[in-house]
Design goal:
about 150 residues, about 50% helix, elongated
Length: about 150
Amino acid sequence: MPQYQPHQRFTEADRDKIAGRLRDAYADGRLDQPEFSSRLDQLYTVQTYGELEPLVRDLPPVRTYQTPEVVKDTKPAPEPGSFPERKKDNHPHHGRGAIGGFTGVVMINVVIWFVIGLGNGGHWPHFWPVWLLIPWAIIALGGLGRRR
């Protein structure tokens, strides 16, 4: 970055940067409304770097963006043209967890049906848990044919 001299004229891009710093300082509460307006008015009347400096002298330096530590990638990226090796799947039965959970739901419903029948003196109602057994059977049998 070149060293600027106080007598050098600045660009409109420099003026926009300083205006941004003043807006940020106002938004952060570092400047009140009259002071912000005064500095902004002065910004559009000055022409050299030396005249700009007093407008921001008492403000903290510009912060550049930093990637938060949480999202920084800890592993280096692979070399261009190389592909990272995929881990082999040691658990080929992914559906077992879903089937196991659904089996529990079916069993609870069968137990409820049985308890209702006992409560009616041995007169069991229509076996309504069959409506849960049908999709359970389809899911269980569908998972058997898959291979990865």
